[in-house]
């Protein structure tokens, strides 16, 4: 997928992603979401954990079109949250002790924003430094 150039094209692409993922099996939907957000143009240090109160909402994030690892994880969490699927809950945004910005879904069953090609299906707990739950973000 080529990343959409205009804001309206990004909105349309994001809407199509959510439509596709609404009825897919959970792992397939999470893989689609993860892969879509890994297509974003990456730039270091756009968002920071200490500035959570100023983080963009989903539409502003797509409008700004700047994606560090944290912004990409935030976009993944926004997408999962707006799908509002019980089998994708709970979902949390996590900063690990190693500095990774991840999205953990279904009580550590799935980890997103780790690998561009797949979600990590694991029962190993990550070492959490900071964490926000879905309802604390949107």
Quickly give the structural class: alpha+beta
> Sheet with the most strands?
5 strands, antiparallel
* Radius of gyration from CA coordinates: 14 Å
Helix content: 25-40%
**Gross geometry:** globular
Strand order of the largest sheet: 4-3-2-1-5
Number of self-contained structural domains: 1
Order of helices and strands: HHHHEEEEEH
Uncertain runs are none
Task: Give the integer mean of the pLDDT values.
Answer: 92
Residue fraction in strands: 15-25%
SS element count, helices: 5
Give the terminus-to-terminus CA distance.
27 Å
Number of strands: 5
Explain what this protein looks like in three dimensions:
- With 138 residues, the protein is of the alpha+beta class.
- It has one domain.
- Helix content is 38%, strand content 16%.
- It has a five-stranded antiparallel sheet with strand order 4-3-2-1-5.
- A hairpin with a 4-residue loop joins strand 1 and strand 2.
- The relative contact order is 0.17.
Question: Helices and strands in order, then pairings?
Answer:
Layout: H1 7-21, H2 26-37, H3 58-64, H4 69-83, E1 91-96, E2 101-105, E3 110-112, E4 120-121, E5 128-133, H5 134-137
Antiparallel strand pairs: 1-2, 1-5, 2-3, 3-4
Helix pairs in contact: 1-2, 2-4
Outline of the structure:
The protein has one domain. The chain contains 5 helices and 5 strands.
